[in-house]
Amino acid sequence: MAMRKKQKKLPRRNRTGLAAAPLEKGFEAVQSYFQTEVSNADISKVLKTYIRDKYKNSINKDYVLACPEYTFTMPYQAATAFWLTHATKKNDDDRSKGYSDALSKYLSQLIAMGKDIYFEKQAKLKDSTAVRSISPMERLQRKISNTIMQDLLDLEDKWIEGEDATLDLYQEFRRHGLPNSATKTVRYVVDGWLQDYNDAYTKACPDAVEGYSHLSRVQLRKRVQACESMLADLDRLQSAAKATRKSRVKQPKAADKQVTKLKYKKEDNDYKIVSVAPLSVIGSHRLFTFNVKTRVITEFVTSSAKGFEVSGTTLKNIDTSLSRSTRLRKPDAFLPIVLSKTTKQIDNEWKSLTTKTTVPNGRMSVDTVLLKVMDK
After folding, report:
1. What are the phi and psi torsion angles at 290 (to 5°)?
2. pTM, whole model, 2 decimals?
3. In what helix (H) or strand (E) does residue 280 lie, and over which residues does it extend?
4. What whole-number distance in Å separates Cα of residue 33 and Cα of residue 17?
5. Measuring CA to CA, how many Å separate 84 from each of 25, 36, 79, 179, 362?
6. Cα angle for residues 193, 21, 24 (degrees, 5° grid)
7. In angstroms, what is the C-alpha Rg of the chain?
8. Which of its termini does the chain have fewer beta carbons within 10 Å around, N or C?
9. How far are the Cα atoms of 151, 228, 289, 336, 353 from residue 330, in angstroms, in the given order?
10. Where are any strands of DSSP class E within 217-285?
11. Alpha carbon of residue 67 to chain centroid
């Protein structure tokens, strides 16, 4: 009788990637594994799968997935999503709850970020015959994702490999031609790194201590210093942008717009006087007004090169040291002088008045007649 040939056992291939994630060892082990062993492509895949499942019947799914690719390459968020999806006992590790809350907060931020990008994309798709154009926001996000974020990902890969690498963000921003508005996106990433490394170095967070247990205190300190240096570079970029920003010159309001709310009396039949056109007040340097109710005559003078301006019902740019008001006992005798005489002649007649002279405030009313405007 022929003997059965013994079947040869083939060597079992070691598991790698997501399949080798140590779920049986608890949440901390999964988190550490994602930090050091899982590629950015797999991290992105895990996070996107979790998002599609979480927001399966919600428009929020489309908002989040519209975000730039770098937002899906965060190891801690992906590790939390992987744990919540695949762990058999999700509540056996109290520390995972804090990271679960942090993941929810992070997804809320992605919803807010991606909402505008999503609607801009949808607006472009409505007209399929139109030439595809990229919005300024989308163009900037693409540039950030393809330049400085790749530099940060390369730096993170070098750190994972044990290198003491650094990154000069100031020079990289200049090299890539990135605007000051790009610093906010980069700061969010670097701030997260700094907090994690600080927590591990100071032993403020047990999770961070466990996650970075493979690094010595010297290495942790160098990582903290590298993050602080990058944040300082971002501060310098913002300061440089403020220093070179052109100051905004306030444009003068159009004359017709200034006088739309100006209150004045067009004509008074008792004193037989008529107001000049309100537009002629704008830019002039001397204005005489008469209040028919209080019999107060006012001489407004301005030293401003722009002349008078009007805001609401108030005359602006008044020189209070040269402007004056007084009550007339005999308006019929003085008003014709104001209407027909020169500035010097009016001043001589004003000095002969015995009533008290006061400083005007520039406010007009429905009883005010705009008697006369002059350029000097």
Report:
1. -140, 125
2. 0.41
3. none
4. 9
5. 14, 20, 9, 38, 70
6. 115
7. 38
8. N
9. 84, 78, 16, 11, 10
10. 267-268, 273-274
11. 18
Per residue of the chain (376 residues), what is the pLDDT tens digit?
455 555 444 344 444 677 778 877 888 888 888 888 888 888 999 899 999 998 988 899 989 899 999 899 888 888 888 888 877 665 555 566 777 888 888 899 999 888 888 888 887 777 655 566 778 888 989 999 999 999 999 999 999 888 889 999 999 999 999 998 899 999 999 999 999 999 999 999 888 888 888 999 999 999 999 999 999 999 998 888 877 776 676 777 787 788 888 999 999 999 999 998 888 898 899 999 999 999 999 999 999 888 999 999 999 999 999 999 999 999 999 999 999 999 999 999 999 999 999 999 989 999 999 999 998 7
Structure tokens at 328: 């007339």
Q: Is 7 exposed, middle or buried (0-12, 13-18, 19+ CB in 10 A)?
A: exposed
Q: Could you tell me which residues are beta bridge partners of residue 291?
A: 296, 368
8-state DSSP, 363: B
Q: Are 309 and 341 in contact (CB under 8 A)?
A: no
The answer to whether the beta carbons of residues 351 and 326 sit under 8 Å apart is no
Query: Half-sphere exposure (CA, 13 Å, Cβ side) for 311?
Result: 6
Compute φ and ψ for 331, nearest 5 degrees. Answer: -60, -40
Strand runs (DSSP E) across the chain, as ranges? 267-268, 273-274, 286-291, 296-301, 309-311, 314-316, 324-327, 357-358, 368-374
323: amino acid identity, one letter: S
Return d(Cα 84, Cα 91) in angstroms, integer: 9
Residues sharing a CB contact under 8 Å with residue 229, sequence separation 6 or more, in sequence order: 166
Question: Could you tell me if 165 and 225 are in contact, meaning their C-beta atoms sit under 8 angstroms apart?
Answer: no
Q: What are the φ and ψ backbone dihedral angles of 260, each rounded to 5 degrees?
A: -65, -30
Cα gap 20→367, rounded to integer Å: 88
